[in-house]
TrEMBL record:
It comes from the Eukaryota. It comes from Artemisia annua (Sweet wormwood). One of its GO terms (molecular function) is RNA-directed DNA polymerase activity. Keywords: Nucleotidyltransferase, RNA-directed DNA polymerase, Transferase. This is Reverse transcriptase zinc-binding domain-containing protein. The keyword Nucleotidyltransferase applies.
Length: 134
């Protein structure tokens, strides 16, 4: 078992790397409000499994959650690899910023009908989503 490249403390298990490592849990905590989830005391891996298993629903918040999940897992994995292979380290704020940029760029490519959920997402993410004319 190799040691986690993010904290250099614990064994690099899948759950540790993506959820419980200091860097990863800081990222998930920062993402919480952006996903419109108030989860106190939750186990992140269970929450995420929950999202993943839910039937696809095209509500805007479920799209936001799926984008956050994919971007966070990708961002954490990239940070791990750059520490191992390039000896470059980013802070969790920087990794978080990259994750948000990725989600934001996907969200602004969407088109949606006006709704209160859409306005909420625009507010929370500080973006404008194009409207479908109907
Ligand atoms: Zn770690």
């Amino acid at each position: 078992m190799s040691v986690c490249a993010l904290c250099m403390k614990d064994d690099e298990t899948h759950d540790h790397l993506f959820f419980y490592c200091q860097l990863s849990s800081a990222i998930w905590n920062s993402l919480k409000t952006l996903m419109n989830k108030q989860m106190v005391d939750c186990k992140w891996n269970e929450t995420i499994n929950n999202f993943a298993e839910k039937p696809c629903n095209n509500s805007i918040w479920s799209i936001v959650r799926r984008l956050c999940l994919a971007a966070a897992v990708y961002g954490i994995w990239r940070e791990r690899n750059s520490r191992i292979f390039s000896d470059e380290r980013c802070t969790h704020e920087t990794v978080f910023g990259k994750i948000c940029d990725q989600v934001r760029s996907r969200l602004i490519s969407l088109k949606a009908k006006s709704s209160s959920a859409i306005s909420q997402v625009e507010h929370v993410w500080n973006i404008k989503i194009r409207r479908i004319n109907n």
